[in-house]
Amino acid sequence: QVQLQESGPGLVKPSQTLSLTCTVSGGSITTHYYRWNWIRQPPGKGLEWMGAIASDGNTYYSPSLKSRTSISRDTSKNQFSLQLSSVTPEDTAVYYCSGRAYWGQGTQVTVSS
Q: What is the DSSP letter of 47?
């Protein structure tokens, strides 16, 4: 069974870069062919897909976030990461990683000074 676990700071200051890591166990992120996703849910709003990195290393981004988002991976650690730059309070949300129909439990990130 695949398990995903998000990790990273719970509080980020405005204008800084939000960085989160998803550690995957029970399956390799390089197994063909899956996409490993970052998704967020702001308070009181629906889920928003942010982007993904595929098992071949290709990346895909939401057009609305593409200019601020970077997704990378460390295959030696079976992890993939999210960086969101120039954050504002509107980026406050629960951030999830997902892949192969499995989801992490989510991590709350608050953007505040």
A: -
Alpha helices in 1-113 (DSSP H): none
The structure tokens listed for 81 are 């990461």
Distance from C-alpha of 106 to C-alpha of 112, rounded to nearest angstrom: 19
* Beta pairing partners, 94: 41, 108
Are the CB atoms for 74 and 81 separated by under 8 Å? yes
Residue 104 and residue 24: Cα distance in Å, rounded? Answer: 9
Rounded distance, CA 24 to CA 97, Å? 9
Rounded Cα distance between 66 and 74, Å, is: 21
**pLDDT tens sequence across 25-63:** 999 999 989 999 999 999 999 999 999 999 999 999 999
